[in-house]
Amino acid sequence: MAARPESFSAATLPTAGQILEPSAGVLLRRRVFGHAGVTIGGAVLILIIAVALLAPILAPDDPYTQDLARREIPPIWHVKGTWEHPLGTDQFGRDYLSRLIYGARISLLIGFAAMLISGVIGTSLGVAAGYFGGRVDMVVNFIITTRLSMPVVLVALAVVSIVGNSLVIVIWVLGLLIWDRFAVVMRSTTQQVRNLDYVAAAQAVGCSTARIVLTEIMPNIVNHLIVVATLEMAHAILLEAALSFLGLGVQPPAPSWGLMVSEGKNLMFFEPWLIGIPGAALFALVLSINLLGDGIRDVTAPENRS
User: What pLDDT, on the 0 to 100 scale, is given for residue 127?
Assistant: First the structure.
């Protein structure tokens, strides 16, 4: 005797939403990998970070070793180029590819460290001003206005020329000078978030100020923080390159990209690759950071989460 088919009720049947609606993880992956800025910027930035971390393995020569008998060898695409030095050598006979690879370490270190210092300062001031308001907001606004009245490059040049121009000093000078954008953006976004219902509910149940800031406000302004952080990281890298170009940043023989441009400027009409190669590396790094930051902002924006 054939078995009777089981009966199905309407409650056991999956709805159209359960069949067609993808999970939150799938939606997040689609947003991330479907955004050109995140994929392109992230891929280039990961590549540069990998090159910096693997510099001792990837670099064909010591970036500090000088050989005047092999000075100003052109890159491999030049008719006089050689595979022994794929990107040629500089005016001191140092391998340009090795200096370019090790220079990524300096740019990434300065950019990340200066961004971290400025982010801590600017975010603390901005969140405090936006949340407390009143006199705290007035004092923070005065500090921000004072900072904006000082040109970054001129102040950095003056401080570095007086105090010194070691790598640590350059990082601290840049970190203490570029926090204003963090403060302005965090103040504005905190003012918008502090008046929302979930913040009022946390205040009503007696949550401490630190708990409200860390668990209610910060998670809702983190996407703005990411964008500012990427912008300031790129800004710090360009400022370091400018200071090194002017001779007051990273000092020789360190393989800084800005210093490489400075050392090659006297030969720019005869050996243009001496400034073109490190200049292209700076362009690629800054562009990738900006693309990644803008992409993360678009992906994490509330209007793009559905």
Answer: 92
Q: With helix as H, strand as E and coil as C, how does 100-149 read?
A: HHHHHHHHHHHHHHHHHHHHHHHHHHHHHHHHHCHHHHHHHHHHHHHHHC
Reduce the secondary structure of 35-83 to three states and give it as a string: CHHHHHHHHHHHHHHHHHHCHHHHCCCCCCCCCHHHCCCCCCCCCCCEC
Segments making up each domain of the chain, as ranges: 28-304
Residue 184, pLDDT score: 92
Q: How many residues does the chain have?
A: 306
The per-residue pLDDT for 8 is 47
How confident is the model at residue 20, as a pLDDT?
A: 53
Q: What does R_g of the chain's alpha carbons equal in angstroms?
A: 26
Pair of tokens at residue 206: 């007696």
CATH topology of domain 28-304: MetI-like fold (1.10.3720)
- CA 101 centroid distance within chain: 18
> CA-CA distance, 94 to 61, in Å (whole number)?
8
pTM: 0.81
If DSSP codes are grouped into helix, strand and coil, which group holds residue 255?
A: coil
Distances (CA, A) of 34 to 40, 77, 104, 131, 227: 11, 36, 28, 36, 19
Question: Do the beta carbons of residue 252 and residue 16 sit within 8 Å?
Answer: no
Backbone dihedral angles phi then psi of residue 89, each to the nearest 5 degrees:
-130, 160
Q: Which amino acid is at 193?
A: V
Give ∠ CA 282-64-58 in degrees, rounded to 5. 60
Structure tokens at 171: 């990082």
In 3-state terms, what secondary structure has residue 89? Answer: strand
H-run or E-run covering 276: helix 273-300
Consecutive sets of 10 residues in the chain, 306 residues long: mean pLDDT of each? 50 52 62 75 92 90 86 84 85 89 91 93 92 90 91 86 83 91 92 85 84 86 88 90 83 84 82 88 91 80 56
Identify the residue whose tokens are 């809702």.
220
